[in-house]
Every structure is written in C-alpha cells, then in structure tokens.
Design a protein that fits this description.
By secondary structure, this protein is α/β, with parallel strands linked by helices. It contains 15 helices and 11 strands. Strands 1, 2, 3, 4, 5 and 6 form a 6-stranded parallel sheet that branches. Strands 8-7-9-10-11 form a 5-stranded parallel sheet, sandwiched between helices. The N and C termini lie far apart (73 Å). Bound molecules: flavin mononucleotide (FMN).
Length: 462
Amino acid sequence: MKFVVLNGSPRETNSFTYQYLRYIETNFPMHDFIVHHIGRKIKKIENDQEYFDSILKIIKGADGVIWLYPVYIQLIPSQLKRFIELVFERKKQSSFKGKNATSISTSGKFYDHLAHYYIQAISEDFGMNYSRGYSAEMMELMKKDERIRLRKFFMQFVNNCENKTETAKYYSPFVFDYPIYKPTKINDNPKTKNYKVTILTDTTETDVSLNNMINTFVKLMPCEVTVVNINEADIKGGCLGCLKCAPENICFYPDGYMEIFKQQVIAANALVYAFKTQDRYFSSQMKIHFDRAFFNGHRPVFTGQQQAYFVSGPLRQMPILREAIEGMSEVGRANLVGIVTDEYADSKIITNLIQNIIDGMLWGIEHDKYAGPKTFLGVGGHKVFRDLIHTYQIVFPQDYSYYKKEKLFDWPKIFFGQFSFILKPLMRFSSFRKRFFAMSGKYQTRLFDKVIKKEVSNLQDQ
Ligand SMILES: Cc1cc2nc3c(=O)[nH]c(=O)nc-3n(C[C@H](O)[C@H](O)[C@H](O)COP(=O)(O)O)c2cc1C
C-alpha cells in the first residue's frame, strides 16, 4: 500500500516523531511511505503553488494518510496548521476525500488529546475516515512493550486502509448564523485607573465583529489599553523546536517576539486574546505566538493575571478550542474572567458581556489578583509539567530551578501524615477498619469545623 505522511515537525528528519515513522517503515517494508516535511517546508508550500499541488496530487493517489506531528502548545505546530488552512483556502479538500487517515504524535503528554481531537475533526472535514491515532511520549520508542503496541496499531491501520473501513464521525459541520456585532454609540470612559491592559490579536480589516469588540473594550475600559496586532509585529516565523531556548530561556530568532511577550503579555495586569476562529481553532498566525512562547519554558508566569478571550466565530461548536483556552489559563495560573463571542443576535448583549469582562478584570486586579480554583485541566496539567521538568531537568535547567524555588515540585503527601505508620498495620484488622470508617465522618467534620468557625469570625472582623 502507498501511505502519504504529512510530517508537521519543523525538525524534519531529526524529529522525535519521525523516528516512530522510521520504526514503522522498517517493520513494514512491504508498504511505501512518501513523506512530506510540511513543518519544515511550509514557506515553500505556501509560496510555490506547483509544489503545493504536487503534494496534493500524491495525497490523491495514496491509500492512506498519516498525520505525523509533535504536540505544540496543546495542538499541532503552527506550520502544519498553516498547511491545513491552505487546503481550505485553496479548496483542495477533495484530494483527501474517502481516504483512511490516522495520527502519530509525540509529546510530553500534555494536552496531546486536543491535538488528536483536532486532527480527527480536520480529517472528517476533509471527508476522510479517521482511525484513532497513536500518541506517544517522546521517548516511548525505547520501550519494547510500546514498540509492540506501535506495530499492532499500524497493523490495524493498514487493515482499515485495505478494507476502506468507514469510521464513526464525531464532528458536525458548523452552523453560524449571527449578525455582525455592531454596537450603538459607545462612550469613551475616562482613563482613571493605572493598570497595564493588553489586547493580543491577529485581527484584520475584514474582521468587523472582532474589531468592534476590541474597540468597545478599549473605550469602556477605564485605563489605557495597548493593542498588539501580531500580524504587524516583528515576528520572523514559527517555532522550529530547536530547544536552543531551553538553557537560558532565550529564543534564537533575532526578532521582536521575546520583547512583546515580556513587556506586553506577561507584564499585563489584564490580558485579552482577540481572534477570529479559523477552521476549528484560531489561526496559524495566532498559533505562532503561542508556540513561540515556549522559549519561556514551563513556568506559570501568568499567576493572578486577569485574562479574557474575544472570539469571532462559532466557539460554542468548538469544544477543542474551548478546552484549550480553559486549560491554558488554568495551567498558567491566570484568572479566566470570561470568553465573549459574537454568537448573539443582539449586539447589546455583546456590549454588556464586554462590560462584565471589564468589571471582572478590575475586581480581580483589586482583590489580590484573584484567580479561581483549578479543575482537572489545571491540576492535571501542572502534574504533567512537574513530572516533565523533574525528568528532563538537564534539558530545562531554568525551569528546574524555578520549580524548586517556587516549591512547584509538590509531590503528594500521605493523608494522616505520621499517623499513617500506625494506621496502616491497624487497618488490616476488620474490627479496626469498621471503627475507623464509623468515626471518619465525625473526624472530617471536626477537622472542617475548626477552619469554618475561625474563618467566619475572621471575615466578620474584616
Ligand atoms: C513549541 C513547543 C511546544 C510544545 N508543546 C507541547 C505541549 O503542549 N504538550 C506536550 O506534551 N509537549 C509539548 N512539546 C514537546 C514536544 O511535543 C515533544 O518534544 C515532541 O516529541 C517533539 O517532537 P519532534 O522532535 O518530532 O518535533 C512542545 C515542544 C515545543 C518545541
């Protein structure tokens, strides 16, 4: 069979993910694998129509499509995302139609599932039959059991391609039927407060709703707002995954990105990301920003920052993007004040929601940088990062020092502390266990009683 492999890693043949393909190639010599290094060649693909067409021609003639990619900031790299956008823009989805497809990714297993969901959704949009992908931790190929698993995975995929297996579809096409957001006259609020507020956007002249949302926010916010448009910023390109940034958190690109990130993004008391959705996520241009932020490592640098998102497009139908947004805020320890979209028939509602965002941001800033509690998205994300920084402390020395200093290596402690040494042997006896569980409810209540009573009186004193 003939497989076309779309390699999203900018590291081309040096990529971790590519080694997984090499392993498959070696084990399945009866099949042909035609690899396109999309991640590395995206500029040529974009600018050279003939080259782009030649890739599409090969896809058309293939028996199966393999998306090969590293997970970059909860998704695929910006370069592969751009390729997908080009397929839509140039209306070439038909080249993929009816084929069987799957994914092979490597990552630190941080939000890898979102990248897989996204690729599944795109594969379905292209009319393909997508088989569940293979998400590997980057070093997993060194383990025998994992290699066996990978071989079996690929055998199944070959089987699906041979039988042209029809797969279940998870994602519906979008329905978006809302008018452009056109607020009635918005008064400029006096700029009486001195907080640093930034809007980071990739808006263009044609994004009327989004521009109006941004303008409404700028006018209503009672402090100066800096609007950073990444289309106009000095950003030379997407992250190349070279990891030159890891030892000192300095990106090799000689451009203005690090300055923007430090001065406008991290330093802001309140930050709004404003973008229009593109396919099932934000644009590859916006993705360049998020990928390039990797130079800063895995440190939760947004602690207490008040964040909001203005989204033009059908976000309610985009659970992947929604989860990515919430996860990013939680892992970054920011406060997600809210997400406002233009999915309302009445512009007045959107204006009110923007005002609510402003009120929420100011409240958060003025209440000790309030940040809401974390869900699984933040708790799980932190644990994955913590373990990763511990494991790869030689590669990420800055992150390692930071995690140590900020006590982020918060390994779990045994509930009951020292008592557990006595309790553990006693719990082997059923009579003790019975008494233990009979009393545990009372014990818990007493434990909470102490803080509840104390806090109530404290709050009344304030
Ligand atoms: C810019 C960037 C962003 C990354 N984001 C994630 C991420 O969100 N989740 C994750 O698990 N790993 C992430 N990683 C780690 C890579 O997925 C991992 O190192 C992968 O194996 C690299 O594959 P490659 O060598 O094929 O490019 C990121 C790496 C880079 C350079």
